[in-house]
Amino acid sequence: MGEQVASYEAGQQAVFDGLKHHFGAQRLGTELTMFENIRKAHPDFYVTCADPSKSDLLGYAKAGHAKIAQETGELFDVTRVYVAPVPRREGTGRLRDNTRFARWKLTWKELEYIIYEVKWTEYMSPFRVYYVLSPRKPGDAETSAATDDLLFACGAWTTELHKEIYVFDDAHWSKDKELWASVQGASWDEVILDPTMKTNLIEDVQGFFDNKNLYKSLAVPWKRGLILHGVPGNGKTISLKALINALGARADPVPSLYVKSFDACQGPKYSIRSIFSHARVMAPCLLIFEDLDSLVTDKTRSYFLNEVDGLESNDGILMIGSTNHLNSLDPAISKRPSRFDRKYHFKIPNEEERVAYCHFWRKKLVESHLVDFPEDLCVVIAKLSAGFSFAYMKELFVIALLTIARGGGLEEGVEAEDTKSSTDSDPVIVDHEPAPVENAPTSDTEEKDNVPEEDGPESKKKRTLPQVDVPEHLQDNRLLKVVKAQLKMLLEEMDNGDGDEAPVKKPADEENEMCGDYAQQMRILARQNARANE
After folding, report:
1. Within 10 Å of residue 77's Cβ, how many Cβ atoms?
2. Which of 377, 393, 391 is nearest to 480 (CA)?
């Protein structure tokens, strides 16, 4: 027994010595060199190389499917790293090992395996390999059936998502637990959209995954593509989160694959190929392309389209592309049938949708004793915020509520005033971003009719609050006063901006989707947030 233990430990010593010798001289083929070292050190064992990205043996064991323990002693190469909590003030952090050489003992189905974990840098990128050892038996074949069974079970587990979302960035797929956690609170109940559009979007997505047999019976490919478009801040992101969460909650969960970029040392075509290859493995799945117009360039368009509807089957893949600029997409992508053939326009919210959004905030504050938020105040705030995006309205509520919570108010810009109506009677004037809108001008002549003449800087109209009649019982409402003060402050800052605004346009009415210059709004919000955090 003692001789067996000594031989066992001598094997690890020989492998470790071989690794040090290899890295102490010119090296070629580290994976093969280590394979030969381990076979010589353990002649009575089968040795099998395994890719951790395909068979995560350590993760499989830590999930409770096997028992694993690291060999003790001094024959290892590990850097211990402190990982701060996120955010930094929550929790105490943790220690994580960056392992370059270690040996593990793994027990699975009453069989014992030795796992060598080896990591090195190759062509500026880290490369990691598991070497799986199982005992040889007389009459066995050249490969180990026991090891194959383990790798098969582990590989199937590794492919699945475990409270994770696949994210493609930096030319590779990774599993993101934090992104999965961030979508768990997303619900369609919190998405304020046109009811018909919301229903159609949900039915399009859920119906696709429910009707595989219907597609088959009609002899049409089981694949679809949707485009979510519109100016930023109007619900595209929260709708995607709600879709991901709803699909993950199905009886047979549908995985979501999220693409951030095509950037790769090997070129964007390599990334496109990797994306669709993995999506075909994970199908049925939801494949999301963020900012599709910036991902697909002239150089990659043909290759991308070949992957979308080329010879290879994309059965079970529902693609969703988001864009802030639909007109920037190549018509071959946005208008060609069988590619992205259904489009959802996320518009600047109308008054009804702004009222619904105000009710959403009122519901969140119903138990609060700091804020008096009567139900009929929702209509007043919605009228005052004509032309604002959902993101801008959210910031308006956040700033107003923070002001009240800090005890601020009059000293932060709320002046005593007659709240029956706004000081100025003109509707709010905001910049218009070119985008397809309902009732939009049909010609250049019609559009010019809506643009005031400008003889110089002095002739430019100032943005003002709309005239809104306020019921008598709301005239002294503190929340309303703070909201109006913040609105006036934001509009004044827009007028006193850097002078880089687009020519001011005054739509005929609110239904023409009054839309402020989004970049300028975001700059002002950043200044407001900085001020609120001081």
Report:
1. 15
2. 377
Element spanning 292, H or E: helix 292-295
- The β-bridge partners of 127 are 120
Using DSSP bridges, classify how beta strands 223-229 and 45-50 pair: parallel, antiparallel or unpaired.
unpaired
Condensed to tens digits (0 to 9), the pLDDT of residues 267-308 reads 999 999 999 999 999 999 999 999 999 999 999 999 999 999
The number of helices, as runs of H, and strands, as runs of E, in the chain is: 18, 13
Q: Which residues contact 513 (CB under 8 A, 6 or more apart)?
A: 347, 348, 350, 387, 437, 438, 507
Residue 113, SS3 per DSSP? strand
Helix (H) or strand (E) holding 127: strand 125-135
The half-sphere exposure of 31 on its side-chain side, counting CA atoms within 13 A, is: 11
**Minimal CA–CA distance to 398: which of 366, 365, 350?**
365
Which residue ranges make up each domain of the chain?
2-159, 177-345, 351-533
Class of domain 177-345: alpha beta
What DSSP letter does each residue of 45-83 carry, written as one string? EEEEEE-TTT--HHHHIIIIISEEEEPPSS--EEEEEEE
Q: What is the pLDDT of residue 497?
A: 54
168 φ/ψ angles, rounded to the nearest 5 degrees: -105, 115
For residue 279, give the H/E element and its range. Answer: helix 268-282
Handedness of CA 386, 388, 390, 396 (dihedral sign): negative
DSSP labels, 211-256: -HHHHHHTT--SEEEEEEESSTTSSHHHHHHHHHHHHHTSSSPPPE
* Mean pLDDT, the chain, whole residue set: 82
Which are the contacts of 304, defined by CB distance < 8 A and separation ≥ 6?
272, 296, 333
Q: How far apart are CA 415 and CA 477, in angstroms?
A: 13
Q: Beta-strand (E) ranges in 370-481?
A: none
CA dist 191 and 242 (Å) reads 8
Look up residue 99 and give its DSSP letter. E
DSSP 367-402: T-SS----TTHHHHHHHHTTT--HHHHHHHHHHHHH
- What would the two tokens of residue 96 be? 């994580």
Residues 361-370: pLDDT tens digits? 999 888 888 8
| β pairing state of 285-289 and 317-323 | parallel
Alpha helices in 138-194 (DSSP H): 145-159, 177-183
